[in-house]
């Protein structure tokens, strides 16, 4: 069954190009240029994934996502014209699954669509129980009680900060966290700590994860935005 992608974008040329790229890759792509019409379509015939532009006539992307998230976990990739805007969007905790900044390459968008869809499948079945949690589809196990992280049964020697960082990122695979959000997760009182502190903990964490993920980078950097944990099929 072909996956249905709804593109909500008022720049119709852009939407059309994207739809063609997605169709070439076997998706069924529909385009809508107005926010209110999009909301109606989402209620009547929800797609498998929503590509949602931020600035739209009728109803903007933020309002659409807020409304949608009241009832739906549908994968959403938010599209904005400005990198700086993404930080603000992250702060609103709208629950988008990924963010793409214009101008983008349609190829990149297709790749991101595939990644988000791949992630969405096991994630819906994964339990959100506290205690022992494993990132969907990966070999990583995180035990909150003992503060131990294991990859394929092998302990990672992590400092408490590195553990907390991994727990935060891997707890929501694919979610993008800004430095400020990671800082909040790591330090009770972050007044004294520079956001750059995150970088050194991340560097060490990546070094320790590297032997377990020789061909992959489990923690993805999104330039100007933040970091996300990728889940891999085991
Ligand atoms: Ca727009």
UniProtKB/TrEMBL annotation:
Coiled-coil ranges (or none): none
DNA-binding region: 130-231
PTM-bearing positions, type 4-aspartylphosphate: 53
PROSITE patterns: OMPR_PHOB, RESPONSE_REGULATORY
Statement: the UniProt record of this protein carries the keyword Transcription regulation: yes
One Pfam family named in its UniProt record: Response_reg
Limits of the OmpR/PhoB-type domain: 130-231
Domain Response regulatory: 4-117
Keyword Isomerase: no
Gene3D superfamilies: 3.40.50.2300, 6.10.250.690, Winged helix-like DNA-binding domain superfamily/Winged helix DNA-binding domain (1.10.10.10)
GO molecular function: phosphorelay response regulator activity; transcription cis-regulatory region binding
GO cellular component, one term: protein-DNA complex
SUPFAM superfamilies linked: C-terminal effector domain of the bipartite response regulators (SSF46894), CheY-like (SSF52172)
Superkingdom to which the source organism belongs: Bacteria
GO BP term, example: regulation of DNA-templated transcription
Descriptive protein name: Response regulator
Source species of the chain: Candidatus Accumulibacter meliphilus
